[in-house]
Structures are given as C-alpha cells and as structure tokens.
C-alpha cells in the first residue's frame, strides 16, 4: 500500500499501513481501515493517502473524498456489524487529542447499551459538558 501513498512521512503509521490491517474500502486518494485499537466493533479510520496533519489543509476535493468513503464505510459497517448509531469525529491538533499527526476521520459504530447514558455523544470529550 505504501507505493500508493503521497508525500510519505517514514515515521507515520498511516503512511506505512501494514498488511495485517483490514481495508474496508479505498479510492485513489484515500483509504478506510478498521482501527487497530477499536473502541467498538467496526471502529473505522478514513485516511487520506497524502500525508497532511491538519484536515483543514486538505483541498475541498480531498475533504469530499474522505466523506465519500465515510458514507461507503457506514453502509459496509451497517451490513457487517448492525450498529444502532454512529459517532463521527476528527481530532485536529494535540490539544484536541490528535495523537497521530496524519489526518484521519473516526467512524465509530455505537450499540444500544454500550454506555449507560449516551446523551450528548461527542460533547463528552470535555467532562461535564455532555449533559445540558
């Protein structure tokens, strides 16, 4: 897969995706893989092939291609894992929790009962802010 990556960073795990990783779908400019450390069954990462840290540095066309793959993956995950909902998120910058400095979108299947009270969803990234 590395031969298809653009602007490769040799230290970036997303620039050297191994053969052990399951690819859900791909395009010329992006790839979607199952997360190696999933928080739920089917947790997927949608990654541009171009090495870029900040989502907002991608062109509008590159951004749209990522969302196209998110939609394709959602259909695949619904068929394979039958989730009851989804969370979708992007961490941009260290203070926002970005730990791999390569753009990636998390598509996280959610299941009834996976948490006691899911109200607020992604608002829970800052403790105490999820319930309003």
Q: Can you give a write-up of this model?
A:
17% of the residues lie in helices and 19% in strands. It has 132 residues and is α+β, with helices and mostly antiparallel strands. It has one domain: HIT-like (HIT family, subunit A), CATH 3.30.428.10. A five-stranded antiparallel β-sheet has the order 1-2-3-5-4, with helices on one face. It is globular, with a radius of gyration of 15 Å.
Counting DSSP H or I runs of 4 or more residues, the number of helices is 1
Name the average pLDDT.
Answer: 91
First-to-last CA distance: 45 Å
Q: List how many beta strands DSSP finds.
A: 5
Quaternary structure classification: single chain
Strand content: 15-25%
Q: Portion of residues in helices?
A: 10-25%
CATH T-level fold name: HIT family, subunit A
The CATH homologous superfamily is termed HIT-like
Structure in a nutshell:
The protein has 132 residues and is an alpha+beta fold.
Helices and strands, with pairings:
Layout: E1 23-26, E2 30-34, E3 44-48, H1 60-81, E4 85-89, E5 105-110
Antiparallel strand pairs: 1-2, 2-3, 3-5, 4-5
Relevant terms:
single chain; 132 residues; alpha+beta; HIT family, subunit A; 5-stranded antiparallel beta sheet; 17% helix; disordered N terminus
